[in-house]
């Protein structure tokens, strides 16, 4: 999937922003259609990588559809680069509340938002995870899993290895996972099925021939 993503961007000239826009739209659509009666705010949990950018992109759509949103970021806003920074700036201008979490103790500050939300979106970690989940993300995932609230995961449940289905210390137990491009093998094997929930696959406008292997990814 990383090779397909890179080929779409570098060889086909599809800006990453377009892919992220459609990834965010896919997540927002699933949240909006599967949990239409939820009038409580949506808690959007974002990491500082491109997976977090997908979540911040979803925020724009959900806001446009009238949802109340609260965003927690597992890092500082000034760590965001490129497209995720663009979407974070838009979220700021839309007036969406955002809390930066940098230590495990900070997770307690998000407790009120967690208790008040009707739905969680997990955009903490995607296919770029390296090693066991670090703090404060690990504490946040533990808290999300114990909340009893429905969770929509972006691409892959955070903490689950997208290739092997092994849990990197701790992983989100999602109600629904919206996979971008192709379903990730790790969602289907090992601990994958017990963490993925139902699986929705959205092509996010990646070229069909790249996804079906007719055109080789670099
Ligand atoms: N075609 C596609 O599939 C497609 C297209 C567009 C977007 N995307 C999205 O982009 C995602 C991949 O983005 P990405 O490569 O930026 O990776 P990522 O999954 O967002 O992960 C990288 C981020 O997570 C942090 N991180 C890595 N390992 C960690 C750990 N063990 N504990 C805590 N934090 C950790 C990194 O911080 P450090 O750098 O500080 O380690 C970095 O901020 C996909 O999953 C998808 O959501 C995919």
Characterization of this structure:
This protein has 218 residues and is α/β, with parallel strands linked by helices. The N and C termini lie close together (11 Å). It contains eight helices and seven strands. A seven-stranded parallel sheet has the order 3-2-1-4-5-6-7, with helices on one face. The protein has a single domain, classed as Rossmann fold. Helix 4 links the parallel strand 2 and strand 3. Helices cover 37% and strands 15% of the residues. The mean pLDDT is 96. The longest helix is centred in the N-terminal third of the chain and has 19 residues. The structure holds NADP nicotinamide-adenine-dinucleotide phosphate.
Write the layout of secondary structure elements.
Elements: H1 2-10, H2 16-34, E1 42-46, H3 50-64, E2 69-73, H4 82-93, E3 98-100, H5 111-116, E4 119-123, H6 137-146, E5 151-154, E6 176-180, H7 192-196, E7 198-202, H8 208-211
Bound molecules: NADP nicotinamide-adenine-dinucleotide phosphate (NAP).
């Amino acid at each position: 999937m990383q090779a397909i993503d890179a080929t779409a961007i570098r060889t086909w000239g599809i800006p990453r922003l377009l892919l992220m826009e459609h990834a965010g739209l896919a997540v927002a659509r699933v949240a909006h259609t599967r949990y239409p009666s939820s009038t409580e705010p949506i808690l959007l949990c974002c990491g500082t990588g491109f997976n977090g950018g997908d979540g911040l992109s979803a925020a724009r759509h959900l806001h446009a559809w009238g949802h109340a949103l609260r965003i927690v970021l597992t890092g500082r806003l000034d760590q965001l680069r490129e497209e995720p920074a663009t979407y974070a700036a838009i979220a700021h201008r839309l007036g969406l509340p955002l809390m930066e979490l940098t230590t495990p103790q900070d997770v307690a500050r998000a407790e009120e938002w967690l208790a008040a939300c009707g739905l969680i979106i997990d955009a903490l970690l995607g296919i770029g995870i390296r090693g066991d989940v670090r703090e404060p993300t690990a504490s946040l995932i533990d808290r999300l899993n114990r909340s009893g609230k429905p969770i929509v995961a972006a691409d892959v449940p955070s903490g689950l290895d997208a290739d092997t289905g092994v849990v990197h210390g701790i992983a989100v137990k999602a109600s629904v996972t919206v996979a971008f491009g192709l379903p990730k093998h790790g969602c289907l094997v090992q601990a994958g099925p017990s963490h993925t929930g139902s699986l929705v696959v959205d092509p996010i406008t990646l070229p069909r021939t790249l996804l079906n292997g007719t055109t080789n990814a670099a």
